[in-house]
Amino acid sequence: MSADRPGASAEPFHDILDGYFTLKESVRQMMARHDFTWAWLVLCHAPVMEIEGLDPDAPVPLHLREGVAGVIDSMLLTVTRTGGSDTGGADTEAFTLIGTGDWRWLDDRAEAALPPDIRLGEPAYLTGFGLSATPGPNPKRIPASEVLAQVPALVADTRRLRPFSA
Predict the structure, then answer these.
(1) Distance, first Cα to last Cα, the chain
(2) Is residue 129 within 8 Å of 40, Cβ to Cβ?
(3) Least confident of 11-15, 56-60, 66-70, 114-118
(4) Residue 164 above 50 pLDDT?
(5) What is the DSSP letter of 85?
(6) CB atoms < 10 A from the CB of 68, how many?
(7) Which end of the chain is less packed: N or C, by CB atoms within 10 Å?
(8) What is the mean pLDDT of the chain?
(9) pTM for this one?
(10) Domain definitions of the chain by residue range
(11) Minimal CA–CA distance to 84: which of 35, 121, 120?
């Protein structure tokens, strides 16, 4: 691929998403660590929980007396950074997550959708490709084949995949 083509400088990487925050907040933290403006992520086996009433950046309470648990079996996400800083210098950075995945709840709920504010139940390993705003050596770089090797099995049965966005 030519280096002047869009996305040509995307770096394959791996990382661990912090648990206990919303998936979107955990991805935002990971994007900030790498200074990514865009990323394509492969996430497998990520326990999740839905707890009503918690702020998006609030950690999960120490004792879980309310809420519902589930598992993201697999998810492919595209993450884009929007915003930047306003004229006063305040950070207005935001991220959009769009993807598809396979997940299940551990209860019998009628609405099986994954809410945009879903929380990770514990840290989750992921791989992907990312574009950095400040290119340089990435200590978490891995061979691209390590990321791509997972994809055929994840999308083999597209009937089980559902859309997700946050």
Answers:
(1) 31
(2) yes
(3) 56-60
(4) yes
(5) B
(6) 14
(7) N
(8) 82
(9) 0.80
(10) 12-157
(11) 35
